[in-house]
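Recall from the previous chapter that SMILES is a line notation for molecules. Here it describes zinc ion.
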Amino acid sequence: MRGRCECGRVQYRSEGKVEYFSHCHCSQCRRVHGAAFATFVSVPREGFTYLSGESDLRTYASSDHQNRLFCGVCGSSLLVEAAREPDLIHLALGTVEEVPELPDAFHIFVGSKAAWHRFHDDAPQYDTYPD
Ligand SMILES: [Zn+2]
Ligand SMILES: [Zn+2]
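With both inputs in hand, we obtain:
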């Protein structure tokens, strides 16, 4: 699986299995992605490599346990690193070029979802993280 930012400077490859496929409705994802929610695939850190553009990456610590990496040129949100799952990287699925077969999706942080958003699927919903 390969992905890239909008301007193409930052490119990456991920070789591990997709562990989770989630839609996050927290207010940070809403603002950072400028959208109702952000969609991620969680993959093993050890199978992840940057192919180019690492020097263009910028890191925003959205909390003391979470970093958000984005392209400093085009602003694309690329991935999230969370201290609670140090062995995983959460890739913004919109930056993935060829999407493989995915596990069933679920919604997280539904407790802080945008009031103006309506769900259009039957995927499981969790107030914060799944139990
Ligand atoms: Zn870019
Ligand atoms: Zn979020």
